[in-house]
Amino acid sequence: MARLPRLSIAGHLHHVLQRGAHGQAVCRDTEDFEAFLSALDSAAEANHVAVHGYVVLADHFHLLVTPASAEGLPGLMQALGRSYVRYFNRRYERRGTLWEGRFKSAVLQPRYLLPVLTYFDTHALRHGEGAAPADYAWSTHAHYSGARVDKRIATHPAYWGLGNTPFAREAQYQAAVQEGLNSVQLGEITEAVIGGWALGDAAFVADLQKNSARRLTKKAPGRPALHVKT
């Protein structure tokens, strides 16, 4: 069965996932993580992609972004791959790609901004790479919780709805992260990005589908219904 094209829709929020090939490390130490984020910053600026959130682990990373054009997201990932892989291969005297095939992406309704950022902030803990969101340096938790300002982050309009003041927004954000996600939320976010689906209510998906020739939701299991002429 032919693979569906990756989702990339201008002006919409995207959750992006890229893994290291065969589970290999793509960041081995602090210098690597910093080089990766620097490459991300440059690639995003060059391809007109707003970065709203990220989490970078040793063997994979997640991004939350909005591309200004349909070509912006593929351009970002290509530029990031070229720049960072060149750095990594030179540093470790290796050849070849780091990545496990194509990146994966899902288009999100804006109301999923906070759940997906929470998914990012708790991701290192789920993978055994941090004791708590505040203890993991390579995500946007510190930025949104008010601990530091990350200049590479573009604030999405949905974030402003969390409160009328910076303190109120930070408090609402921290409360959401502390509560975490239930198994249903974790499952739908993971399934959407791995499958390459749109994540939102029926009206959101239907509106997107009007302007996309690509199927945006998972097919229902089983055989198609048999239609009998009457």
UniProtKB/TrEMBL annotation:
InterPro entries on file: Transposase_17 (IPR002686), Transposase_17_sf (IPR036515)
Bilayer-spanning residue ranges: none
UniProt domain Transposase IS200-like: residue ranges: 9-123
Coiled-coil features, chain-numbered ranges: none
One Pfam family per UniProt: Y1_Tnp
Name of the featured protein: Transposase
